[in-house]
């Protein structure tokens, strides 16, 4: 029998090993208070929904966005996984790195959508092509960040990865959660050190 449940819980913002858990719903995990705070704006509505579900209330999955918990405003179904999400692509502003649009976030930054768009076929959770990425850290991030639906995060089995430190200042970098560059000599450099 193969064990596929995750041994380590990962942060919903950066995929680094988690140090704390949401005390409201117990479903989401974070590496730090900082990332827990970053996630809260989108998590707070979902948190209430998960708590109502845990108490046995039937909250239909198509009545709210699975990424931010919104019930009002236009909702649509994703093509990749046929789940309910905000129909909000227009919230994204061209040439910004804004993460304001749930639809775009799921589309661009998740294994679910990558697997679908690249037509890998078969189950995304055991897909070997999805395991090839720029780094194990980014592969893990694509699987467990909060642009994924909770059910997928719970099924995910992200790879372990070595920490990446900035080649200049030595600071631990969280590659999925901050912008960074890859240096020609190898290794990553943080935004401040690269002068951006
Ligand atoms: Zn984190
Ligand atoms: Zn919660
Ligand atoms: Zn949403
Ligand atoms: Zn999907
Ligand atoms: Zn795949
Ligand atoms: Zn640096």
From TrEMBL:
Q: Which residue spans traverse the membrane?
A: none
- Domain MYND-type: start-end pairs: 11-47
Q: Which keywords does this Swiss-Prot/TrEMBL entry list?
A: Metal-binding, Zinc, Zinc-finger
**Record keyword Kinase present:** no
Q: Which domain of life is it from?
A: Eukaryota
Query: Which InterPro entries has this protein been placed in?
Result: Znf_MYND (IPR002893)
GO molecular function, a single term: zinc ion binding
Pfam families, sorted = zf-MYND
Q: What is this protein called?
A: MYND-type domain-containing protein
Naturally occurring in which organism (per UniProt):
Exidia glandulosa HHB12029
